[in-house]
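Whether sequence alone determines local backbone shape is best considered at the level of individual chains. In the encoding step, the backbone of a single protein was reduced to a row of integers, each denoting a local shape. For completeness, the protein is quoted in full, as a sequence line and a line of structure tokens.
***
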Amino acid sequence: MNRIWKLAIASLAFSSFSLNAAIAVPSSQDLVSAIEKAKVLSAGTRISAALSNGEAYISTFKNAKATDEDCKIEAILVAKALMDLAPSDINRVNVYFYNAMRLNKRKEVSVSAGDVKAFGSGQLSQDQLLGSIAIKESEVSDQASKAAAYLQQREAARSSKTINSYVNGDTLEIVTELEPDMNDLDIKLEGTRVAQKIVEKTGTSAKRIKVSFADPVAKGSIKEMTFDLAQLTALDKSLQSALYSLQVAAVTTKIDLQTVEAVDGAVKVERADVLKRLKELDKKGVGIEPFKKQFFDIEKMVSQGNDEQAAEAIKKLAQSVADQEARTKDAKNAKPSGKASAPAGTILPIPKIWLPSYQDRNPDGMGGGWKVEDIVKSPDKYIAEKELQLKGAAEADRNPNFARTLSFLYWQLTNNKKISEATPYGQRFLEIEARYHHMETLRKQEKLKQN
């Protein structure tokens, strides 16, 4: 039983439906404070709330690791906290869990006062309660909701500012809090950037965007900026021009794959499986840099909402990883057989068919920029990159240029007195040659060039 569910049982079963002294109809801030006081969600999680006709509407962000059951449990606890706060004013709580990486997606859970009472009194078991509450994923089409979700995510790491958004005719209005140290220049820069990002992230169809900064201390004091879309475009061009000379350096740090987890979103099960297999290869010292890059590219596709592209890409990567797993196993347990059969330490009859003019870096003519010393040091990474270029080990075996790769690798390892490491690659060359007769193909290609 997980920690959250233990908290749920303690909260609901023992306090049941605690009828606190009724307060005046709670404000949005009262609702948020009640949830924060109950410590239902992780500390620092952004929350917005509203109450209308007996129903509370709560928006927050879904933890990337949270399952549908986790969301249901959190929604039940949120409902319990709010119904304890104002039992006569709230008969249903609707919780929207936004995806922090895809703001147009959210999961919805609706909990009634009857659900909470039934569980608290023992009429429903925990399984029955979870089974009776539905969770659904929906697309966010409302411009104000999209804007609010984006702004809440944006401010999550900066402050606990209250943010509201709504559509007023053809104007999208954003209301946020003025920070204590903001001067007029800060307000102009912040307001412009907020408006620009709203257009970029939500694709709003509003003709104008009004950004209001309310002073949290001097109540009623507001500073406003209104933009039309043409003005925003002109401002963006001016800013780009003014900042053009400033350089941003891209720095890549080494990523420990063992600490990485698949992001929430499409084909998560498939992505998590591939990641697990990559971690195993990484532990064995197998070169997986090309696979890591492809995996992170897929993660980016998911975060940008390109689900179909990600699904297709993860299938291809899974096959490439499977091929690499098989090659790693073969290389580790290599036993000479057939034409490749030879005693340990024997030099195999591998022809030197790489391209002389490229031998320092690209002996197969496929590019890559590898130096000989790096190839000898990490032959598995070298081969993995070449296989990835050719869309997997199976496709690589069918490509005559890959025969050049194996030939070059075999002789570089052999010349550096690494015969035992070279042997599996030599065996692979001979097995591929027996199957596809690449030598004949390469001879024909050379003949065509000469003619």
